[in-house]
């Protein structure tokens, strides 16, 4: 598996991953009605942030977008979002998309991890993240109703 910068032609393979995740409505606070053009504008970061893909044998298995959590005095803390193709989950794609420590960030923060997304919460905990707060009932899960959103943090 190779991690590389996103290029325009990648969207043909990235969009189905993004579409599957947002239409499931279980892990990202994105509108499941978004067309590809809107999702592209939200997912593909403009500099200084950037977007990458995880690729194996010409197939994109996952994607991530990343950058500073906040500008100015908060720019030493990174944030990122990850999406992995359904059939590629559990194979280390999310872990392979780690990047912040090599870019000089002091910490990494995830602002909205759905507490019911047990696989992601457990992965982030194994990678050294801690839940530093939970916003109660901040996410409308399609089958569980309103669940909390964790803020997770890890010093680098």
- Reported by name, the CATH topology is Aminopeptidase
Please give the domain count. Answer: 1
**Can you tell me the overall shape?**
globular
Would you tell me the overall average pLDDT?
A: 91
Q: CATH homologous superfamily? A: Gcn5-related N-acetyltransferase (GNAT)
Second-tier CATH architecture = 3-Layer(aba) Sandwich
Number of E-state strands: 7
Distance between the termini: 24 Å
Count of alpha/pi helices: 4
Order of helices and strands: EHHEEEHEHEE
Helix content: 10-25%
* Regions with little confidence, pLDDT below 50 for 5+ residues: none
What value does the Rg take, in angstroms? Answer: 15 Å
CATH C-level class is Alpha Beta
Q: How are strands sequenced across the largest beta sheet?
A: 1-2-3-4-5-7-6
Structure class: alpha+beta
Give the biggest sheet.
Answer: 7 strands, mixed
Q: Estimate the strand proportion.
A: 35-45%
Describe this entry's structure for a reader.
- This protein is an alpha+beta fold.
- The protein has a single domain (2-155), classed as Aminopeptidase (3-Layer(aba) Sandwich).
- It has 4 helices and 7 strands; from the N terminus they run E-H-H-E-E-E-H-E-H-E-E.
- The protein has helices at 11-24, 36-43, 93-96, 118-126; strands at residues 2-5, 50-56, 59-68, 77-84, 107-114, 130-141, 145-155.
- It has a 7-stranded mixed β-sheet.
- Strand 6 (130-141) and strand 7 (145-155) form a beta hairpin.
- Helix 1 (11-24) crosses helix 2 (36-43).
- The two termini are 24 Å apart.
- 27% of the residues are buried.
- The mean pLDDT is 91.
């Amino acid at each position: 598996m190779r991690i590389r910068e996103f290029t325009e032609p990648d969207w043909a393979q990235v969009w189905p991953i993004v579409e599957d995740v947002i239409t499931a409505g279980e892990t990202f606070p994105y509108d499941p009605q978004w067309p590809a053009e809107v999702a592209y504008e939200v997912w593909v970061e403009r500099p200084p942030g950037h977007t990458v893909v995880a690729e194996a044998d010409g197939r994109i298995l996952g994607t991530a977008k990343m950058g500073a959590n906040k500008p100015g005095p908060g720019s030493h803390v990174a944030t990122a979002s990850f999406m992995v193709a359904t059939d590629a989950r559990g194979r280390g794609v999310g872990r392979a998309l780690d990047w912040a420590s090599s870019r000089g960030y002091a910490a990494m923060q995830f602002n909205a991890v759905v507490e019911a997304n047990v696989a992601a919460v457990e992965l982030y905990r194994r990678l050294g993240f801690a839940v530093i707060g939970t916003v109660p009932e901040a996410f409308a899960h399609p089958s569980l109703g309103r669940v909390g959103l964790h803020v997770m943090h890890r010093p680098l």
